[in-house]
Design brief:
Radius of gyration: 27 Å
Strand order of the largest sheet: 1-2-3-4
Number of strands: 4
Helix content: 55-70%
Shape: flat
Strand content: 5-15%
Amino acid sequence: MKRRYMVIGFFLIAALGVSYLVWQLRSGELSLGVTINDTPAMVESVTLLPPDDDNPSPYFRVTYLDGETESLSPENYALLLLQKDDSRAFTFKLLNISTPAGIAWVTLGLLGQVLFTGRMIVQWLVSEKKKQSVVPTSFWWMSLFGASMLITYFIWRKDIVGFLGQGAGWLIYGRNLWMIYHPRTPKDAP
């Protein structure tokens, strides 16, 4: 009996949500357009819009800094972006960034990678000194900080592969540090 009420409640909420969206669309308060943030220098805003009476396929509404508005096909918008890419400075092309703030983000990612790589060098040097394989505590700290910096960088880049790759390791590094600083005593052992 409870299950039936839950299903009815779910469909009722879904129907109300769809009704609200339809009402918003008809009243003009909601647009199916998608605003694009990374725009060429001479462009104030770009919105991707669905087909309508004047445009049989999706199109871009481009508003320039001087207030002029233009509708562009995907092909023409791609040409506009290509012009933007050609006008970028060498450093911006090399780092694949579009704003000066991107330099700080790439620097964060590079520092994270240096820490992450440096941990292996530290482990190698300590092992060579002791003439046996050793994993020092600094290895885990460098792993944790390097992974944290890389996770932040991958979130900025919207790179799910990098985020998941570092995220899983991050938990392991934290757990190893926990075990180093909170060792089990014989009475805690199972």
